[in-house]
Amino acid sequence: MNRGARRAGSSGHDSRDHTAAGARHHELRHPGRRGHLVRAARPLRRARRRLARHRRCLRVLERPGRGARSERVLGAWLAARPGVREQVRISTKTGVRGGLGAAAVRTAARGSLDRLGVGSVDLFWAHVEDRRTDLDETVAALGALVTDGLAARLGASNHASWRVERARAAAAAQGVAAFDAVQYRHSYVLPRPGAALPDSGHMLLDAGAADLAATEGLTLWAYTPLVNGALTRTDRALPDAYDHPGTTARLAALDAVAADTGATRNQVVLAWIMTGGHGRTGLAGELAVGPAWPLVGVSRTAQLDEALDARDLHLTEEHRAVLDGAA
User: Fold this and answer.
1) 252-261, pLDDT tens digit by residue?
2) Fewer CB near the last or first residue (10 Å), C or N of the chain?
3) Around Cβ 112, how many Cβ atoms within 10 Å?
């Protein structure tokens, strides 16, 4: 493999070239002070300084915490920096607590906008399915957010692919905006087929969802790409669901490519996701995935730098063969 393949030169403008750093509420806390929000704006300041080079890097608010603290943190950061809002893109979610009924969607969206101090968000997510609410009602409520200028786009997170397509058909029938983005848990290493994930509510990217995104041109987002830091942190083991020979082979492949490029394991994984890759799924065969946006939660500026630098990592065909060929 060629060590000269570290940097990729000029960047493009689509999902193949970027990472999204997610400001999750618990990841903005000092690890030794549970419940205390500290140094929350430091990664945001670093991101602001790097926008000249990472002009299209999204600031994604992945999951508002208790009391929506992370939205307030980001809102205060934006308020103190006039003009910055036009340089970043923001998304937020709803659906976990109040469901996806019309009133709940509207109330959640208005609350998020108030806390963020903005007139609209660039992407509004339905966080999880709500099968207690009629899908037509949910589709109409979400579509109204776009019609009324409260959101530019809509996304479905942790939704079965058939339900995403059914919602898109309903939106077309109603003449309102439809989901044009989907979000699933995805990484270079994968759990055993059928194994229970330690995080309840997470939905793994599967062949159906990957095919839907590619066929319909939906933007694909991948959360937990670094498996909560377990790929690099010696104090954090991979969950038991990942304990199988395929993980051992894939970690060895990561180490080989990282050594050849001078990158970290995390950066190799992010570059692999951003440029599309193949993930083995055991009995289900091979999962071919197109380019995706990885969502990365950070609590330190060094982690932010590591994630942003991954977009400049060029994986050669030889590197990709090593990564995709690992069992």
Assistant:
1) 999 999 999 9
2) C
3) 24
